[in-house]
Design a protein that fits this description.
321 residues, 11 helices, 12 strands, 21% strand, binds adenosine-5'-triphosphate, binds magnesium ion
């Protein structure tokens, strides 16, 4: 655990640390143990439905540890993404959700552990193999903006033109089909500046599925959306997953929306999996930590403040930083 993590799990909380490991709730301790995982003969915790077997996992993560500098983000995490399912990864801000997606897509390398995607060990792939694997992953990243000088059609056509030798007539057909799938075929000539936030997100989604990926990684797909476009996106993610036989991972702290479309949920914090299970099971979970997160309560085991020295000491310290 990194500096100050005990601030997130104070000694009087059910999640204080022992040897760097949060303790206090037997059920969730088991959830964060290496035996508990979504696939492969696991002992799922807080789960009411049987989980897929090992061969049904598109992504299999074992013993993942990763630090940003001295800050430990993941500490021996196990996680599985069943093929064909929508798996949600939730957790408080700064807990490592975006980092997890970057590890799965090979943009970051783990310090320890393995990340298998469709049987390929992402952590040890060379550049060319990683490039090929990434082409099979659609990504809708938190900051994933459209190319502002290209219209909607050309934004969606971009990956097809960059990565394939398809002739223009076929590119056109594919782009129109992808735009149709997100309900924006009629908006093909608009520029990004003429789109609402929700429409832009859907165009980015059409671009993410342009190359017919086997999976889509969504990073906070609902952020900044009004309730209507949020509802549209929620439905779209589920429909695309099922109609195109995709596997989806949705990283979000929009608890209700994400839970409504997920088949399986992981809740992560403090570098560990804190709970895992179906939405029904997670919703029924009683531990203080999971309740605080799921119910959006300001007070509970998780602290609002990023770990820091005492305010008075900080204010009295000389210096400009
Ligand atoms: N490039 C980086 N260098 C150093 N630290 C980083 C870097 N990127 C992220 N971090 C740190 O790693 C931690 C996890 O960041 P990450 O972006 O994965 O969190 P998150 O769960 O996606 O948060 P949010 O919900 O706010 O998007 C944070 O404490 C962040 O400060
Ligand atoms: Mg993030």
């Amino acid at each position: 655990m990194g500096r100050g993590d005990s601030e997130y799990f104070p000694a009087d909380s059910p999640w204080h640390l022992r040897d760097g490991v949060p303790i206090g709730d037997a059920t969730l301790d088991a959830a964060s143990s290496s035996a508990a995982s979504g696939c492969a003969g696991a002992v799922p915790v807080a789960t009411v439905a049987p989980l897929p077997t090992a061969r049904d996992c598109l992504v299999r993560i074992r013993g993942l540890s990763f630090s940003h500098g001295s800050r430990k983000i993941f500490d021996r995490v196990d996680l599985d993404l069943p093929r064909g399912a929508v798996t949600a990864v939730m957790g408080p801000s700064g807990t490592g959700k975006t980092t997890l997606l970057r590890l799965i897509s090979g943009q970051l390398r783990p310090d320890a552990g393995t990340i298998e995607v469709d049987g390929e060990p992402v952590q040890s792939l060379g550049r060319a193999a990683l490039y090929n694997l990434r082409r099979r992953m659609g990504m809708l990243f938190q900051s994933g903006a459209l190319l502002t000088d290209l219209n909607v059609f050309d934004n969606v056509a971009y990956p097809l033109r960059e990565h394939t030798d398809l002739n223009p007539a076929l590119v056109r057909k594919l782009v129109l089909l992808k735009l149709e799938a997100v309900g924006l075929r009629g908006a093909r000539d608009l520029m990004p500046s003429e789109l609402s936030g929700g429409m832009a997100r859907r165009v980015a989604l059409a671009r993410a599925i342009a190359l017919d990926p086997m999976m889509i990684l969504y990073d906070e797909p609902f952020t900044g959306q009004d309730p209507i476009s949020m509802g549209v996106l929620v439905t779209l993610i589920r429909q695309l997953n099922d109609a195109s036989h995709l596997t989806s991972i949705v990283v979000s702290h929009d608890v209700r929306e994400t839970a409504s479309i997920a088949d399986f949920i992981y809740v992560i914090a403090g570098g560990r999996v804190m709970a895992q299970g179906t939405p029904v099971a997670i919703t029924a979970e009683r531990s203080a930590w999971v309740r605080q997160f799921m119910d959006g309560l300001p007070n509970g085991p998780v602290h609002f403040h990023y770990p820091a020295p005492a305010l008075a000491a900080d204010l009295l310290t000389r210096g400009l930083g």
